[in-house]
Amino acid sequence: xxxxxxxxxxxxxxxxxxxxxxxxxxxxxxxxxxxxxxxxxxxxxxxxxxxxxxxxxxxxxxxxxxxxxxxxxxxxxxxxxxxxxxxxxxxxxxxxxxxxxxxxxxxxxxxxxxxxxxxxxxxxxxxxxxxxxxxxxxxxxxxxxxxxxxxxxxxxxxxxxxxxxxxxxxxxxxxxxxxxxxxxxxxxxxxxxxxxxxxxxxxxxxxxxxxxxxxxxxxxxxxxxxxxxxxxxxxxxxxxxxxxxxxxxxxxxxxxxxxxxxxxxxxxxxxxxxxxxxxxxxxxxxxxxxxxxxxxxxxxxxxxxxxxxxxxxxxxxxxxxxxxxxxxxxxxxxxxxxxxxxxxxxxxxxxxxxxxxxxxxxxxxxxxxxxxxxxxxxxxxxxxxxxxxxxxxxxxxxxxxxxxxxxxxxxxxxxxxxxxxxxxxxxxxxxxxxxxxxxxxxxxxxxxxxxxxxxxxxxxxxxxxxxxxxxxxxxxxxxxxxxxxxxxxxxxxxxxxxxxxxxxxxxxxxxxxxxxxxxxxxxxxxxxxxxxxxxxxxxxxxxxxxxxxxxxxxxxxxxxxxxxxxxxxxxxxxxxxxxxxxxxxxxxxxxxxxxxxxxxxxxxxxxxxxxxxxxxxxxxxxxxxxxxxxxxxxxxxxxxxxxxxxxxxxxxxxxxxxxxxxxxxxxxxxxxxxxx
Length: 676
Known about the structure:
Neurolysin, domain 3, 27 helices, globular, 9 strands, Glutathione S-transferase Yfyf (Class Pi), Chain A, domain 2, five-stranded mixed β-sheet, alpha+beta
């Protein structure tokens, strides 16, 4: 028997990674899909009248096994892939796409759903039940159940192609990231770099059986190199290596792929009766329409652009003070901005790093969660893991009741994609009176510890950890009946609220005092440093906002119009960037070909949601500031109305219930220093 098809005989039914082989996945997913098909046939052929329980709930649970197995596999594919897993993904993805189409295009199944939907007002359904019913009905309508035969076949072909192309996009980007090394042999080239980065680069060289130092495009290497390297030519080399990934007309070029993905999405939206892919996506978002999104981005840009321009002029003046008269290029920005920040606030990342030992930060975020929500994290080494870097915790509520399992995976490796994300191996749901608790993971790329130094985070990385932990809380604290609505299964422009609000605590002394101790002396982070962190919170916020808005506008450029107009991607990006560009053009560079969020992740027509959710998080955190950042009453309301509710109700209603009013954009503009 394939172990993936059995009940896991492990603590809390966690995934038995130590017993699973890659060879298990394809036969297991095929069998699981067949089980789901059998379950769906039972729903369709049920002789009794269609009801909420025998149709809607039964359908929500029909593919439980297939969903669990596919989530296990694709989480491994993202965090610890290999050529074999990449090949498996290419076989599994079309199977899942075909199965998904078979379900949502099934007219007999939809007829059962429609019976329940038409009598919904007389069923006395609870909010969560009504939401699941409406979501199920709309999923079928929005995914082509009403199409004619030839149109349905075209939809199947589109979905199959898109599943293959998004995988290819991600594989190309991972290869381009892993294949680049900046190998230095001259010690003078290391000028300006912090000792920790030099040590990591020396270790990287040894691992490659080379002398000298190796720097890579992984974030813990690339970001500090651009920030600290005095050698401007090497900064330019590294920057261009990063931004030219998959834009070099080689075997790993993504230009044709992104154009094809966008074209297929547009055709699919048209097939389903929508003007563009953005219209299709936003029909199920808080924003509702592309016009709303574009107006929102333009409104924020109206405040941010003048601030960003003043910041850039100030940075150029600072460069001239240093005797540097060359133009301010993109590979110069981080370098000079860090020096200016240090001058203005007597603060830089390397001064703060010793206070942010990874283990202390993890304990700190656990303490914050305990003070806010009464939950505790208990390390459990008996839980199997997929890689030695992974650590596991049991999560308990105030009464000591089991809430879920939490995995952490913090360090880069060749098989892991860049960035940071939260994911789940099992979502929370209730079946037959049993509350199946979630198994949640956060995956990051922080600097590894060395033989004589622990993993020390930058302030930005501390913020990243708190951000992803906020997503994890959304999954762990879910208290929902139906898996289709649990945890982070919410409108995409609401999903970032629980993550982004957590970032606010990192700038508060009351929070930092819980964990920010010098890793050698144990000394608490000095009050002067915390004050500098607070004062520097708005440093170059105009630039950061414009950068974020530029990505949102680029996303809409691909998806809110007919992409067949895009012939040359560089020209398209240049045109799209006119409202937001603050630097000279870099012809070797391209954003779209590495824009994984929208071309291999779930953010197409949704990248604006980061800024949209910032409006919510700034407004929500202002409530905490009014009452106290660890105020139990406010925290309980956030827990009850946001974190535990998943997608059981419309997010606008959940937010109003927490805040007592609609969100206001002014706290965001004020927090960012964009208005006084």
